[in-house]
Design goal:
Largest interface: A-B, 44 and 39 residues
Shape of chain B: globular
CATH class of chain B: Alpha Beta
Structural class of chain A: mainly beta
Strand content of chain A: 35-45%
Helix content of chain A: under 10%
CATH superfamily of chain B: Thiolase/Chalcone synthase
Strand order of the largest sheet of chain B: 3-2-4-7-1-8-12-11-10
Strand content of chain B: 15-25%
Low-confidence stretches of chain B: none
CATH topology of chain B: Peroxisomal Thiolase, Chain A, domain 1
Order of helices and strands of chain A: EEEEEEEEE
Oligomer: heterodimer
Mean pLDDT of chain B: 95
Number of helices of chain B: 12
Number of strands of chain A: 9
Mean pLDDT of chain A: 94
Largest sheet of chain A: 5 strands, mixed, barrel
Order of helices and strands of chain B: EHEHEHEHHHHEEEEEHEHHHHEE
Distance between the termini of chain B: 12 Å
Largest sheet of chain B: 9 strands, mixed
Structural class of chain B: alpha/beta
Low-confidence stretches of chain A: none
Chain lengths: 150, 385
Amino acid sequence: MPTQVPVAEGVFTWPSDEPRLIASRCTNCDNHMFPVQADCPRCSGVSTEPVELERTGTLWTWTIQNYPPKSPPYAGNADPATFEPFGVGYVDIDGKVRVESRLTVAEPEALEIGMEMELVIDPLYTNEAGDEVVTFAFAPTAGPDNGANR
Amino acid sequence: MSPASDDVAIIGIGMHEFGRHDGVSGIDQGVTSVRRALADAGVQWDDVEFAFGGSKDGGAADTMVSKLGLTGLQFINVANGCATGGSALFSAYNSIKAGMFDIGMAVGFDKHERGAFRIDLQSHGLEEWYGESGLALTTQFFGMKLNRYMHDYGITEPTLAKVAEKAFRNGSMNPMAWRRRAMSEAEIAESAMLSYPLTQYMFCSPGEGGVAVILCRADKAKDYTDTPIYLNAAVVRSRKFGSFEVMAPHLSPERSDGPTVDASKAAFEMAGMGPDDMDLAQLQDTEVGAEIMHMAENGFCEHGEQEHMIAMGETEIGGRFPVNTDGGCLANGEPVGASGLRQVYENVLQLRGQAGPRQVPNDPKTAYTHVYGAPGISGVTILSR
């Protein structure tokens, strides 16, 4: 199995069996931001601290990327002949922040606003060193109440 | 009532056809639009005392003077994304209102590469991984905002196709439009799905074109034209905390109105008018959902009422409140620097009664424009005659 390397340092905890997104919390007004940033657009504060987010959340809205994004900047497979659509959504995490993310599911029937989601690692491409470059994504959590299982 | 000297009038408009023009630079399309506006106003280039102009990808607007004539006028370049035209107009309005100048120009033009906009991550303050992961696409935002809106307010998929069908039908009556072939709702709904729930023909495309507007002190407008159109408001607003905007790696669960709501309210206040006073509107329709959502965000209906209004044909040219009479961005494409001024151009034609086969009936007297773009900016104008 190739070594998996993150698309960027500091976006999610890695290496880890249970990776978590790394956000910022404003020490003045408790506003949460992703990715990490030093300034708070809510209160104009300049004091934030890194926090690791919960690994589960609910799907607030979604779409499906049905055509290959321009490359660059896209680093995944953008070949029109073999491109595979991917979902994109905002996942509400603990009522603190809604994170924009790839979704592992790309079928409208399998996605529903309000469904439970969990963080996973999603391979993007293989780099020149032969390592698998991975980013984060959310996947529907398995469970009887989840829209994905209807 | 004779106009006060500090009111501002539009006395000339000019446009270079929107679309794809191989071999014609963005600058040249801007120059053509200026020459047409000068001719429309009956004004010579050396009468123009100042200009505000802009373009995103078409070059620096002030270089147009090397073609139009080196008269030494004050020319200020404006770069404000999709609100570039509105910002130029706002600046021109204030220059006249402040008494600095009597006659000037707002101009915008553009020429974009084909396909969806390629986002410059750095200039948007975004990190490389965001683009590498496939998240730096404006189309995703429009799909996600609309999907949530349909969920919250009961807008249905057939309504989406109706909006695009209207746009291309109106565009078919507009010789300056890019896409002038009317399309059926079925053809629109069955075209390639790009970003659920939006299909290919529900999106506008980046394009090319130019628009220029000549403005002057209202009390001098009758020297140039029998039908001056008054600029009652020009407003630009950026986003507030909690609004849902394009290119946002995260959102706050704390929600607030977007910049469109703020710009609209400010424009109505500036003009001393309200939504019920408007006879027609050009609203940003980057895609069909944008037109639907912007009807409510600009105050022309409650959220969710659009479903019924569109079914009843109220936004048709002959309807109660015509929207995007020139085919909007859907039929004209979106040359970013020119797009907001294209809306003003259309409203001037409508208020003069010069819109030909797409003329709004019953002698409209007031007209509204609205643009929206990255990274969460809106521009509104109100015109009257």
